[in-house]
Amino acid sequence: MLDIKFVRENPDVVKENIKKKFQDHKLHLVDEVIELDGKVRAAKQEGDELRNAKNKISKQIGALMAQGKKEEAEEVKAEVAKNSKRLAELEEQERELNEQLTEKMMMIPNIIDPSVPIGEDDSKNVEIEKFGEPVVPDFDIPYHTEIMERFNGIDMDAAGKVAGNGFYYLMGDIARLHSAVTAYARDFMIDRGFTYCIPPYMIRSNVVSGVMSFEEMDSMMYKIEGEDLFLIGTSEHSMIGKFIDTINDEEKLPYTYTSFSPCFRKEKGAHGIEERGVYRIHQFEKQEMIVICKPEDSFKWYDKLWQNTVDFFRSLDIPVRTLECCSGDLADLKVKSCDVEAWSPRQKKYFEVGSCSNLGDAQARRLKIRVKDKDGNKYFAHTLNNTCVAPPRMLIAFLENNLNADGSVNIPEALRMYMGGKELLTPAN
What is the DSSP string of 210-269? Predict the structure, then answer.
């Protein structure tokens, strides 16, 4: 959420930013919030004047009563009662106006960084850099579920009967590989100085609205019926929510956390053939990283975060590339974002396995995450998040890039200690 003062003083900048995000249907919001802001300030000013007058008049009543001027005192009391009634009306009016103002403000997208490429959708995202040499072997690579089935490692039919489409059973070596990847990711991030955390898997609505836009909430979150609780779509939501309504000492920043959790997503809409299997599902696990820092440090941390993901995948012999998200592909709260994509030898192209985002002070402003400097001045922190790894999607890249012609799968050295020392997985079928 933007600072209302910034919107008030820079309406053209805000409107131009909306146009860059190809959300012209939101342009009217700028004028509406400025009008509402004017009404809020007018109601507040009148209320402040009435409070001051009430204090002065109250003193007069005492003086008049002391002088025996009861009739005059009663007249003044009537004026106080009248002012009190008007003040109550103004306070209710101000509350209602503030609610309307906040609702509209939360629909206005954050100001994107000048470096963000302008484009309407993800087809206009820009490749930044490739890491590792993408290889296409001289043998056919089956679809990822077929590879898993050769190890008796997946059962989506049974999962469909139990939970419906978008769920799965992982078993045997494939399930162990899944757990090995998340355990390795945990230790990988701890070794990079991040504090490991397992967060709540449900969050309240005020945290949900603090970390994402209404559109994201509707398309992603599962609501717990009869409760003010939502299942998390990523542990970032819980981890940022940990700091809700706090004042943090500047000298203790940055806070760097790596968190593991299951994630639950609606994943609305139809998906193509390349997004079946375990690519786009309703339940998965993820190792996440978040940073709470000073504003001047946020872009330094942004570069560190996406580099962590690149280094993690390269340690498992998986070629990756980074892709700069264009303006139209940025969620409303994001200032800048890039995707990390892994190489798919079967598809002969890259596909998304993680996303790194700098949200500026948008989440902090919504959740009241403040920082106090040595002089006692307070300001909003900057928040960032990034995916380290999200199996089972990551398993697609792992299996394809480590598959041999005979159907066996190589286990890179970094992962062997988590796989009982195994160097190779041999299919059962």
Answer: HHS-HHHHHHHPEEPTTSS-EE-SSHHHHHHHTTTTEEEEGGGPPEEEEEEEEEE----S
